[in-house]
Each structure stands twice: as structure tokens, then as C-alpha cells.
Amino acid sequence: MTSAHAESVNGSLPHEPEKATLEGRNKVLGFWLFLGGESVLFGTLFATFLALRNQTNDGPTAHELFSLPTTAAATLILLVSSLTSVFAVQALHRHKVAALRLWLIITVILGLGFLGLEIYEFHEYVTAEKFGMTTSAFSSAFYTLVGFHGAHVAFGVCWIGILIGQLYKKGLTVVTAPKVYVSAMYWHFIDVVWVFIFSVVYLLGKVG
Q: Taking every annotated instance into account, which residue ranges of this chain make up the domain Heme-copper oxidase subunit III family profile (predicted)?
């Protein structure tokens, strides 16, 4: 079996990075288990939000509060970032390190754009709408769910940013390749969660 300090892409890196080493396979398996736990946690937050979404305590309602154009723009940015992460994995399989780094950098930029819109949205709610964390049970559930997802996006941006640095320093090896694959899994997960947030929180709130 190839050791953890094996050659870079110019050597014998296999086409399926998650199968490169036993360590790589264990990382992927362990990460699937982690995503399972995260799914349960987000499911709990969704259930709490749905139970409390009408408890406004005379504060702004979802229909009065939400601006769909801003949220739709954030959704589009995050969905495009999911596509760029796919392109990164394709570049990984083709052993094109420069293209891999480029697509990861674009993914990080798009992730930062999403976070910028979310921070702007929260700022507008707090300052213009007087809709804070403690305004009502609805506001608490909203900020907990959406903010928790935003924290996941911020973590993903930092993670991929560190990975880009490792690719510049070490190149594509049987150590760095599984990290790219796992980070792409994580990014797709937070994209899927956002689709549910956009549908359940924003669209349902606006039409409701």
C-alpha cells in the first residue's frame, strides 16, 4: 500500500482519491457518519423553526420581513459554488493541479459572497426592522437555524482556503487528494441544507 508520504500527481496518484490509502477510505467513511449526525441536528433545528415560526410576539412576521430577491441572489451564488466544487473534483480526477486550485479559489470567493449577503441581510433585519435574536420565539428560531448554517459556510470557506494553501505547498498527493474529495462532500451538504432553508424558511414564510 502506498504510504502517506507518497508521490504527487506526477507519480502514481490513482484516479479515485478516496481509495488511495486506508486512511483516505477511513476519512470518507468517517465523514459520511459526521454528515449523518449533522443531518439529524439540522432536522431538529428545522422542526423547532416550524413549530415557532408563527410565534412573533407582535414583532415582524416572515411575510413582512423577508426580501426574496436578496435571498434568491444568495441562493444562486451558493448553487454556483456547488458547481465549481464539482469542477474542482473533476480537475482532481484528471490530475490538473492548477485547474483544481483555481476552481477551489472560485468556490471560496463565492462562499464569501454568500456570507456577505447573509451578514447584510441580518444587519438590515436588526437595524431597520428591529428584528433581533430575542424579539420573539420566531426570531430566535430563525437566527439559530440560518446562523448555524452560515457558521457551517464560514467553516467550509476556511477549510477549503487552508486546503488551497496545502495544494500550493505540497501539490496533489495521496494525502491531499482525499481532503479535496471530503471538502467537496461537505460543501455539497451545506448547499443542500440551504435549499431546504430557502424553501422552508423564506418561500414558505413569504407565501404563508
A: 29-206
Partners of 173 in the beta sheet?
8
Burial class (CB in 10 A: 0-12, 13-18, 19+), 35: middle
Q: Please give the Cα distance from 34 to 52 (Å, whole number).
A: 27
| DSSP conformation letters of the chain | ---TT--BTTTT--S-GGGSSHHHHHHHHHHHHHHHHHHHHHHHHHHHHHHHTT--TTS--HHHH--HHHHHHHHHHHHHHHHHHHHHHHHHHTT-HHHHHHHHHHHHHHHHHHHHHHHHHHHHHHHTS---TTS-HHHHHHHHHHHHHHHHHHHHHHHHHHHHHHHHHH-SBTTHHHHHHHHHHHHHHHHHHHHHHIIIIIIHHHH-
168: Cβ–Cβ under 8 A, 6 or more apart, which residues? Answer: 101
Residue 10 lies in a domain: no
CATH number at residue 141: 1.20.120.80
133 located within any domain: yes
By C-alpha distance, which of 13, 21, 30 is closest to 182? Answer: 30
Domain residues for the domain of 78 are 22-207
Q: What DSSP string describes 160-175?
A: HHHHHHHHHHH-SBTT
